[in-house]
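User: Quick sanity check before I run a bigger batch. Here is a single chain. Can you write out its predicted 3D structure?
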Amino acid sequence: MRMRGRVRTGLRGWGGVGAMAVVCALALAFVLLLPLTQSHGDGGTETGGPGVVYAQQAADDDPCLDPAIKSAPEKQTLSPSSADGPTIEKIKAREGEKRKLIVGVDQNSYRWGYRNPNGGPKADLEGFDIDLVHRIAQDILGDPNAVQFKAIPTNQRIPAIQKGRVDMVVRTMTINCTRVGQVAFSAPYFKTGQQVLAPKSSGIEGYGDTLAHKKICTAEGSTAFSKLDDDKKAGRLVASADITTTVPNQLDCLVRLQLGEVDAVVTDGALAASQAAQDPTVELKGTPFTTEYYGVAMKSDADDLVRRVNQILVDYRKDTTDGWQASYDRWLSATLAKDSAKSEPPPPQYLRTS
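Assistant: Done. Predicted structure follows.
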């Protein structure tokens, strides 16, 4: 049974406009330089595990019409397995320098996936998402550095997976009901929510009436834009709020904010906190107004890879030496909170697969 059928179920110190413009130019250059290759995933294996909670199946073609999926898309994933399958075998069969995991990432999200401008001529990618990629590569290929990173704009994450340009995307990608009908997701590895970012001197107080007559920037294809668009149509967002400014990458919104071209940015609170750390003139306004979960995204029919990543996440969470908590402490505790409890996803729930 194909995964798609199943998902029908129930830099600190970077402040300043000039510096940010240079960063964006460098990011674009890296996007153009990163090569494009093809990879394809299919097939699957099956295992279950103790304590697994399963969703019920439904027949509707649109996952967002199923209340169970619409309310809990983060539960629409497969149970963990360490077994190799057709997708993983194809990855392992790559020869020589091509024997790498091909992963779509961000390279300009501070402390998530970014090139440290103070990292010297090599300037390797680093951050919370990058740590997870290295862990996945270690488990599948036996080498944490057996990775080919591809910089993927926010609005190109799903096409990159569907067209086989990457094996997976690890890029602060929220699991939602629309996306589970397009790609397969792992269990959640991070919990966050949408939040407003604006200048400290702004009168904006959060997601509410103080956004009246304000220009708001979001990334194309992001859950932030979908939320604002839905809320505006439903009358939940003040009618005079201008949400027409969208950009390919989230960092572009921060630059627009610094240039005075927009009044506020709406994005995941975890990303917004990192952007506030980059520019001390802006801050988070109000509290998160959604609850969302990041997942690793893969092809809809790459069942064995989904299961393998879910097993890796189980082990990563349990690792008290160099696992999830250690990565959080290294990258995110300074911008979010010392206590990671609010960012840890709940115990995963998996689909029934037979």
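Residues 237 and 347 are 33 Å apart (CA to CA).

User: Great, the batch can go ahead then.
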